[in-house]
Amino acid sequence: MRLFELLDALELPRQGRDRDLTGAAPLDQASPSELSFFANPRYREQLSTTAAGAVFVRERHRALVPDGTDAIVCDDPYAMFARAAQLLYPERRPVWRGIADTAIVASDARLGENVSIGPGAIIGPSAAIGDGACIDAGAVIGADASIGTQAIVYANAVVADGCTVGDRTIIHSGAVIGADGFGFAPSAEGLIKIPQIGRVILGNDVEIGANTTVDRGALGDTVIEDGVKLDNLIQVGHNTRIGAHTVIAGGTVIAGSVSIGRGCMIGGQCAIAGHLSIGDGCQVAGRSGIMRDVEPGSKIGGAPAVPHAQWMRQLAAIQKLPDILRKLT
């Protein structure tokens, strides 16, 4: 793709010299035919020595771009680079095309146009697969499940009975959508399993990482709203609701009946206790333990989680403890 062609598609003014772009790369690895971006001050030196053909930068960093590299000035270099990369690298999709001979498709399953189903995949009774959807090798779509248009379910992932997957949603390998939630009632005779009769509903443009599990609701549904991005190895308990465009990093575990607002950012390896409410726009540091409700817009960290500034003071105090103990003894 030519640089000016790319800028036109991004609705940016033409800047620099028109050239062929063959791809994208980090600042310290990019060649003169590749695109890069600068959004983190720690890579300032890499920007000043990059060999990239063009780099997205803010206006205040234009002067750092070396001769031979074109500065593409924009308000948000990281977001603009993401959009450009989508144009340079059309979305990766399973290599299988059409319906494999070894796929098992129920006679009453409804398949849209241009659907691809890989070897060994199973499409259950009364399931619906939308136009252009890809079900990769070994994936299982349960009875009465619904897969949206242009959705991708990668190899060996499971969408269990009755669950709904929105348009353009991506489910990576090994993920399980709609396993039974963890519900047992104690009795004198032991634990009584509570039937998990709800569903999982994934909105449009959701992405579910590899080996992530989203449990079906016990009575109502577990809901993941539009644009949510879940990393690998996340557990979402039954009846939880995650608001639109929230991002959760890997290894986080969320107990049942949690409500997470819109536009939240939750770091990796967090633990969230059940029946809590986390407001819109919250930011949670990695490895935090959330044990009570969180107000909208909060920035928290630690275990148990506290306001970020308080957590920083706690960490600073812990660093001083050895010296304090030496003085006391």
3D structure, described in words:
With 329 residues, the chain is α/β, with parallel strands linked by helices. It has 2 domains: 3-88, Udp-n-acetylmuramoylalanyl-d-glutamate--2,6- Diaminopimelate Ligase, Chain: A, domain 1 (3-Layer(aba) Sandwich); 104-308, UDP N-Acetylglucosamine Acyltransferase, domain 1 (3 Solenoid). The chain has 4 helices and 36 strands. It has an 11-stranded mixed β-sheet. A 10-stranded parallel β-sheet has the order 5-8-11-14-17-22-25-28-31-34, with no helix packed on it. A hairpin with a 4-residue loop joins β35 (299-301) and β36.
Brief rundown of the structure:
With 329 residues, this protein is α/β, with parallel strands linked by helices. It has helices at 3-9, 44-49, 77-88, 308-328, and strands spanning 23-24, 34-37, 54-57, 70-73, 104-105, 110-111, 116-117, 122-123, 128-129, 134-135, 140-141, 146-147, 152-153, 158-159, 164-165, 170-171, 176-179, 184-187, 190-193, 200-202, 207-208, 213-215, 222-224, 229-230, 235-236, 241-242, 247-248, 253-254, 259-260, 265-266, 271-272, 277-278, 283-284, 289-290, 299-301, 306-307.
Distance between the termini: 69 Å
Strand content: 25-35%
How many individual β-strands?
36
Q: Outline the low-pLDDT stretches.
A: none
Oligomer: single chain
Integer average pLDDT? 97
Main beta sheet: 11 strands, mixed
Q: Could you say how many structural domains there are in total?
A: 2
The strands making up the biggest β-sheet line up spatially as 7-10-13-16-21-24-27-30-33-35-36
The CATH architecture of the largest domain is 3 Solenoid
Structural category is alpha/beta
CATH superfamily assignment of the largest domain? Answer: Hexapeptide repeat proteins
What's the gyration radius in Å? 24 Å
The amount of helix comes to: 10-25%
According to CATH, what is the topology of the largest domain?
Answer: UDP N-Acetylglucosamine Acyltransferase, domain 1
Number of helices: 4
**CATH domain class name of the largest domain:** Mainly Beta
Tell the overall outline: flat
